[in-house]
Amino acid sequence: MPAIILGGIAIAVGAMIDGAIVMIENLNKHLEDQAPSTEDHWSIVTKAASEVGPALFFSLLIITVSFVPVFTLGAEEGKLFGPLAYTKTYAMAAAAALTVTLVPVLMGYFVRGRIRRERDNPINRWMAAGYTPLLKMALRFPIPVLLGAVLLLGSILVPLQHIGSEFMPGLDEGDLMYMPTTFPGISIGKARALLQQSHKLIREVPEVVSVYGKAGRAETATDPAPLTMIESFIRLKPKDQWREGLTLTALKKELDERVQFPGVSNAWVMPIKTRIDMLSTGVKTPIGIKISGPELSVIQSLGAELEFLLAGLAGTTSVYAERVLSGRYLMIDIDRIKAARYGLNVADIQAIVGSAVGGAVVAETVEGQARYPISLRYPQSYRDSPEHLRALPLILGNGNQIVLSDVANVRISDGPAGIKSENGRISGWTYVEADGVDLGAYVASAQALLDAALVLPPGYAVSWSGQYESLARSKAQLQVMVPVTLLLIAILIYLNFRNVMAVLILMATLPLSLVGSLWLIYWLGFDFSVAVGVGMIALAGVAAELGVIMLVYLNQALARWLASKASDQVPLLRADLQQVVLTGAVRRVRPVLMTTCATIAGLLPILWSTGTGSEVMQRLAAPMVGGMLSALLLSLFVLPVVFYLWKVRALALSK
What we know:
Elements: H1 3-33, H2 41-65, H3 68-71, H4 75-100, H5 102-110, H6 122-140, H7 142-154, H8 157-162, E1 175-178, E2 181-182, H9 188-203, E3 208-215, E4 230-236, H10 248-258, E5 264-265, E6 268-269, H11 271-280, E7 287-293, H12 296-311, E8 316-321, E9 327-334, H13 336-341, H14 346-358, E10 360-367, E11 370-376, H15 386-390, E12 393-395, E13 401-403, E14 408-415, E15 420-422, E16 425-434, H16 439-453, E17 461-466, H17 467-497, H18 500-509, H19 514-524, H20 530-564, H21 574-607, H22 614-651
Antiparallel strand pairs: 1-4, 1-6, 2-5, 3-4, 7-16, 7-17, 8-16, 9-14, 10-11, 12-13, 15-16
């Protein structure tokens, strides 16, 4: 089972059991307050379940709906987090259905007999003794409490200034891939020598087990890599056998300092992640820049200027702009007049040169069921340089012999090594690696630099690719779907309470749950990514669910007080309302703490996990672990205070 599916179960486990916790907690309260003999047991169960059942169903439905933005993610982020979203959604849908169907039945069968009062439990007494005076103080001074909540919300400006952005965290796959890029025109012999020399230097690092690689394309039509692309796979020892204190970043830096060749741009990447990036965007480095326009010569000059500008930008590790016109071609220009003097035509000369240099199939050999062509061409000494090609012998029809230079001009010419196009426009690519700065901040500073220093002629454009392209795509999708999801959550809250003020209270206090998320992300040194965004989306649903249940308890406490005093026509004073809020909130403190502890306990193993893939799972769990702590403060203190102020104003209570 993939770890991402287990992560979906882990982030849903707290909310899944919260419905059963609240349902059983409410039944316990009814059985405490009423002797079993005075009323039928199943009537008590029905009454207890009906009091909180609708609110529980809607709150669990809110958690389910909160994951709508994750379903809209496409490309690789959608493939990665899709299983998590489906797992969590199906689990929450099942939990919502079981909470209002199976759980009440099981409660009726198993929750029987004498129920100990909550105050008889020493743990409950300790929780109530610690929570009651704090809430009393908060209700006596509601305005300072709200101001403190606003200041707490404002404190997120500190981590927001330091948290960067990235598409996906760098995954440690256990191995490395060395992908240098050379200038066009490198010979096969030089590429072979470069490959051997780089491997020899890499093997000198103690953490390296083996290294093997290739230059150019493999023997398959699916690998159109040019000779300038070198790929070397580096197998590393387990980390417990590394030198003490050595990290992957330090190892990359050591390798980069050791392997330095003139005209070669280094790139140290992860094998699997790089393959995925190349399949999705075509760019092998985290950041790519594509210059598009009609003329290759202008594209090459713009790429060289862009390379010069970015080389001095803070955080740039390496930058290489493709030399789209730096290919080398052997040109054989046939002089038709000279050829005619010897009785030759262009086709005759082309056939001779083609068979002498490229070879001609003269026969086939059969080996079992396989057939192999037999090709014949001139020895390599006749064709390994322009000078030797000029002296290539040609036999005329009369038996006389001439050389190729008598009828053709043999020369080396510059031209495009390869032509890339996107959306019907020719393009040239620039590969950029950055270190010590997050992806979003680097691209923002690079864009500002290029806007100020790079002048684009009419008809030319610059676009950013690589992981930044994926980051921008997912960010644009979430910017549209997150507000839509919040609107759906607001509609569900309204359908539950039938009160606009309750919707405004819950939606206005919801951002407070993000305080703990942002501070924990900042403390752990994480950047904003799609994984962090998914974790925050999951947190929003759980925080809304905690708030809904708290408001239900407070409304029930107020309704019970009004019903008990209806016959006496006793006016509701502020002191009475404070006691009502205190009673309702204290009834909720135990299930709130149980839900919070269950959610955090399910996520801590993910937060502390190590190994391949743990980088994504940690960023998924961190927002929920930190956010559950701030959501706990929101549910236990801020919401009761806001509810108290709301009812004071709505009921026009006197002191």
